[in-house]
Structures are given as C-alpha cells and as structure tokens.
Amino acid sequence: MERYKSKREINDEKRKRKRRWVGRVILITLLSIVGAIIFNFYQGYVEYANIERKIAAVEDDILELERVKSSLETQVEDINSPDFIEQIAREELGLVKKGEMLYIIIED
Fold first, then answer.
1. How many domains does the chain divide into?
2. Band of the pLDDT at 2, cuts 50, 70, 90?
3. Angle of helix 82-91 relative to helix 7-79, nearest 10 degrees?
4. Does some domain include residue 102?
5. d(Cα 81, Cα 84) in Å, to the nearest integer?
6. Residue 19 maps to a domain
7. Domain containing residue 40
8. Residue 104: inside a domain, yes or no?
9. CA–CA separation, 24 vs 18, rounded Å?
10. Cα(82)–Cα(78) distance, rounded to whole angstroms?
11. Higher pLDDT, 17 or 44
C-alpha cells in the first residue's frame, strides 16, 4: 500500500533539494573563481616568459653593437694616425715628401 508523505517530509525534501542546489551553485562559483585565478597566473607567466625572451634578445643585440662600436673606434684611431694618413696620401693621391722623387712606370 502506498504511503502518502506528510507536509513535514515534503518540506524536508524541498529543503534538501534547495541545499543541494545552493551547494552546487557555491561549488561552481568557487571553481570558476579558482579557474579565473589560475588562468590569470598562467597569462602572467606567459607574458613574463615573453618579456624575458625579449630582454635576452636585446642584450644579445647590445653585445653585438658594442663589438661593432669597438671595431669602428679602432678603425677611427687607425684612420686618424699619421702613418695611415701618409699611406693614403702616397697611394691614393700620389704625393711625396720633400726630397723624394716620384717615379711613374708606364707600361706599353
């Protein structure tokens, strides 16, 4: 024989369902918040890694440019030296010092 439920039993069941529903909503909310926090930390980490990579690349560029600068400074020192200026004057301009004679060899 089927037994009918009393109002108290019906209200108890409603309260249990409501508690389960509220519990699920709280659980889903907490999981969403934790997921959002994890996602934000992950994005921050990815951004940090990208910035570190860019910093390393810029540091490599700086080292290379410092090498080029050093090489150019050495070239400027060489170009400004009296020996280099004399060499260019003799080879490019055909100049001679006082008392020297310039010989030009003409080939047939």
1. 1
2. low
3. 70
4. no
5. 5
6. yes
7. 7-91
8. no
9. 10
10. 9
11. 44
